[in-house]
Amino acid sequence: xxxxxxxxxxxxxxxxxxxxxxxxxxxxxxxxxxxxxxxxxxxxxxxxxxxxxxxxxxxxxxxxxxxxxxxxxxxxxxxxxxxxxxxxxxxxxxxxxxxxxxxxxxxxxxxxxxxxxxxxxxxxxxxxxxxxxxxxxxxxxxxxxxxxxxxxxxxxxxxxxxxxxxxxxxxxxxxxxxxxxxxxxxxxxxxxxxxxxxxxxxxxxxxxxxxxxxxxxxxxxxxxxxxxxxxxxxxxxxxxxxxxxxx
Length: 247
What we know:
This protein is of the alpha+beta class and 247 residues long. The chain is built from 6 helices and 13 strands.
């Protein structure tokens, strides 16, 4: 959110009064005086003060990790199937949540849900190299040749070249294999298409992690807020994005 808008909401001041507070050096973000109304901030993980009074975190955005079961759509609502947002209790849903890093209906695992539009955008951009880790089962052999194909960049039938990806073999046989895949892109059905381009079909897709976000210990169908370490991880990504915008 914009710093100026946050101050107006939190301090109940007019736009003119807000700009004066900024111009006169009354506002700090993580200890540094900031004077620009349009600076992008989030009090969920940044300490923002006006006249040395900290703006409460509840003015920030909402962040949840959701353990998506199979059969659920990565959508806010649907007339035919249950959705990821249906898993979140109404009291915990501010009404403007968006799903960052969608999974197909037949896939399961980690989904990140937030109403932070800037962060949602960042997580969709390959240039930030945010790794996504999947445990994948296929109906054929995963071998060292396939590992090399992933490392070189899998090429789809339409000529699309994927960024280099990591494929680790967990188990392998001519009938079925399981591997761990790490990618930093977010193309539609990407992991399934990568294996299909290598001659095998995905039979199970489970996302374990997005960056430093994991759902270890979270029951299927459950959700939780981020812990402090995860908030700090998102903060570092967010600050990197702002530095790149300014450079």
